[in-house]
Amino acid sequence: MTTQRTRSLGRPTLDAVAARAGVGRGTVSRVVNGSPQVSPEARAAVQQAIAELGYVPNRAARALVTQRTDSVALVVSESGERLFAEPFFAGIVRGVSSVLLETPLQLWLAMAQSPLERERVEHHLTNQHVDGVLLLSLHDADPLPTLLEERGLPTVLGGRPARMLHPDAQPASFVDVDNAGGARQAVEYLTGRGRRRIATIAGPQDMGVGLARLSGYRDAVRTAGFGINPDLIAYGDFSEESGTAAMRLLLDRCPDLDAVFVAADLMAFGALHTLRDAGRRVPEDVAVIGFDDAPIARRADPPLTSVFQPVDEMGRQMARLLVARIRGDEIPAPHVVLDTQLVERASA
């Protein structure tokens, strides 16, 4: 009978991997720990030796030496229903995962919307459990970034927090897209085609993304020489249902509106349903532009003109910035802002 002791004696070691690869023990250690200070040839030799020997790092022993857990958390301040229903979150996870594949870091995902979820997540987010944290879909009053800063955990935010839009805001590491610029481009497109009564369905105003897209709308309306009419502004929470309700409200207030910029494609999808039910033709009577360029934009009727945001790249940049912070690398700029682009389809 093979005992646990004899099995453990036969377990491949770091030295065995080094001997098989023809390199030093330190080189193997650097490869296992994801260090970039290894030549491509040596890395390939070590990886081949690991595969041939079936070497598995002893994570508990490594943690004692390196003070690392080899885990990072992606915390989303939304419900599970929204997390798994909205393509934005899937794109972020794809981007993050693609970068972490090149490192020893493992990703774990958590929702933090309900009080119970928040309590569990806050209890787990310590340097005994994770090496760093990615935060997504933050609302303005969320204390989590400050808590993690006090704990000394490297943290990167997905999206510029609302507080960062104020002049006296404290610096934070974040990756965002040019939300205000994308909104301006959408409204300028509408004014350039003769639309004059341009409404908007804005996102939540306790989120940086909601504030920035509304700001871009207002800037473009002013530049076009139109006054800001509060009746042409309604609000949603990025869901399809909120877009349906907001569009209904806008039609009640301003039945002569001829265009609407919607701060998210799901809300725009709901707005299209409302316009159709009200007998308004799109784009003949009312032009509609969304934001995200999500797959739903191409399936809409008519296909939705939308502002493209590079969600997968946003996830990749978040992961790269976090890995650099965990490693203690010098970071020239803690902020990354990605460009947006208008994608023209039939709705506008």
TrEMBL record:
Residues 12-66 form the HTH lacI-type domain. Keywords: DNA-binding, Transcription, Transcription regulation. CDD domains: HTH_LacI, PBP1_LacI_sugar_binding-like. Pfam families: LacI, Peripla_BP_3. GO terms for molecular function: DNA-binding transcription factor activity; transcription cis-regulatory region binding. It comes from the Bacteria. Gene3D superfamilies: 3.40.50.2300, lambda repressor-like DNA-binding domains (1.10.260.40). PANTHER family: HTH-TYPE TRANSCRIPTIONAL REGULATOR GALS, LACI-RELATED TRANSCRIPTIONAL REPRESSOR. This is Transcriptional regulator, LacI family.
